[in-house]
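FIELD: query
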Amino acid sequence: MGKLLAVALVGIAAALAAERLLAFRNRLNASREVAPVSLPNCRLIKGIETGSEDIDILPNGLAFISSGLKYPGLKSFAPDKPGEIFLMDLNEDSPRAVELRISRGFDLASFNPHGISTYVDRGKELEMKSTVELFKFVEDDNSLVHLKTIRHDLLTSVNDIVAVGPDSFYATNDHYFTDFLLMFLEMFLGLTWSNVVYYSPKEVKEVASGFYSANGINISPDRKYIYVADVLDHSVYVMEKHANWSLTHVKMLQLDTLVDNLSIDPRTGDIWTGCHPNGMKMFYYDPENLPASEVLRIQNILSEKPVVTRVYSDNGSVLQGSSVASIYEGKLLIGTVFHRALYCDL
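FIELD: result
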């Protein structure tokens, strides 16, 4: 009887493990491939070789690009090189990326930017250690002055932020655990433990939860709605923002790709996002089978039938692992987790 019970328990455990493995592969789109969709007038941005994970463009056309992300389990072409912030002026005829000088006293050696957001003339930059770094951009000499480091117990594993004030923001925590093995186990088991946190000097609170892996976050042009990408759920959530900064669920848009960072066209309200058609290739990097890139444009997300258009896709021969797509006056910047960046005239 004891042996039969042991065999039964082993069989149940094996079945559960197989089910979890299948679900994990599905969440990573392990078998999906995409047909190429090219754009005219595109060029790789010179000087960006180790990623352009997030891009934020000011209303005046100045684009800030975070580069050099080191993330557990993902490829890095320069693991010992500190992170960087680049600037591009999209008003120029042939814009180029210029590395911004960061003020003395800031720990550049451990700088690992992950997500970027701007508010008026101040930028916030994110580290893997789950601190939010507050900078002031000095346009006269293309430099960043470090103002302060923000830490809080609720900012456990921050992926991205959207600034809503000089020193207040919404942040996504992409995992409950920060240890890589526990993070991987959390993903494998399909635990919905990640969340969105509102931070201000006066109040810090969880405002949304129940995500597999909350990733990109942004705000609508009218400041009424917060958009959250759940990368492992292949979806974009719409949340209504209230006067007390709390959020309530409005709707969810299901997609067939791993949605990374979200950018908003300030004129139309369209959502632009860099995506991973096959996330398995991001975690198991193979030079012979490169991770692809994909850019989606989402129009009228609040309507009953939003329009989703695949604007760009590549099998990795040009661009590997796209993570963001930002638009300004008919110009598109496509960034990647660890590879290069693409500039296109639409």
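FIELD: remark
The chain has one domain: 32-345.
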